[in-house]
Amino acid sequence: MKKWFGIFLMCVLAVFSAKAQQKRIVVAQDGSGDHTTIQGALDAIPAFPNDRIEIHIKNGTYREKLVVSSWKTRISFIGEDRDKTIIVWNDYSGKGKINTFTSYTVLVQGNEFQAENLTFQNDAGPVGQAVALHVEADRCVFRNCRILGDQDTLYAGVDNSRQYYVNCYIEGTTDFIFGPATAVFENCTIHCKKNSYITAASTPQNQPYGFVFLNCKITTAAPEATKVYLGRPWRPYAQTVFLNSELGTHILPEGWHNWNKPDAEKTALYAEYKSTGPGAATEKRVAWSKQLSRKEAKKYKPELVLAGDDKWNPTK
Q1: Do 245 and 207 form a contact (C-beta atoms < 8 A)?
Q2: Fewest Cβ atoms nearer than 10 Å: which of 18, 137, 167, 277?
Q3: Would the pTM of this model clear 0.85, i.e. be above it?
Q4: Is 30 a catalytic site residue?
Q5: Catalytic residue selected from 91, 138, 152, 175
Q6: What is the distance between the alpha carbons of residues 81 and 94, in angstroms, rounded to a whole number?
Q7: Any idea where the domains of the chain sit in the sequence?
Q8: What is the DSSP string of 219-255?
Q9: What is the CATH topology of the domain spanning 153-307?
Q10: Residue 6, H or E segment
Q11: DSSP state, 298?
Q12: What are the pLDDT digits (tens) for 179-230?
């Protein structure tokens, strides 16, 4: 009897071990995958996995508030279809004890997180600060994702975080891309929903880069959005740069706002290089902003901006 019990126990442990090391997990609401919720898939992943673990998410609207904790490293969310694979929640600042930094739909704290082909959304509406995606981890990549909300849609958080967004669609109203991280947005569509400010960087004083927009389109379809600023400084040393980007008619000629902080004009770095489109009135920009030279613009390649001490290059 003891012998058979031992064999049974070994088999159970082997199954659990195999599950713990599973590198591909499927989430499907119809029960055809390994889990029906994304949270269930996250819970099944061991702390600090040896290899990257991919969570493949089938089409559906997943109404979940998620935390990818700091010990869930090297996790990938891979959606089936960007427009049909949706993670959504509706918290906002002032809802009970919720504040801006706890209003997220998805909070990423685990390093080397990646996401592809899905939507992060906060559908609380125009009720104030309501974050869709809050990223604190380092070396994170988002490809072909939508990030939807109103005020404070995307929080690129913490000053040791490097984030790369490529071929993404990000929309919002006020300060809808904000925070202290080093973040590159390449070939992205940045969509403005009302008269306000796109970015509110809070770049730390000694950090080489803040927000960098490369080859992006700054769009609007809303009649409420005819007077939009590219950014304003949440903190004194804010850095935001637009390079080779197409700016719509809704971008104001002055381009940037000092948030009623005259001293920030001396420390913030707000710059452009070869902006195009009807909003590219570079000769009318505020005097304290900058037009980069060709030599200066070369410093804003993703592999340089995001390199850090470990020479990370997410474009490879």
Answers
A1: no
A2: 18
A3: yes
A4: no
A5: 175
A6: 33
A7: 29-115+128-148, 153-307
A8: E---TT-S-BEEE--SSTT-EEEEES-EE-TTB-TT-
A9: Pectate Lyase C-like (2.160.20)
A10: helix 2-20
A11: G
A12: 999 999 999 999 999 999 999 999 999 999 999 999 999 999 888 899 999 9
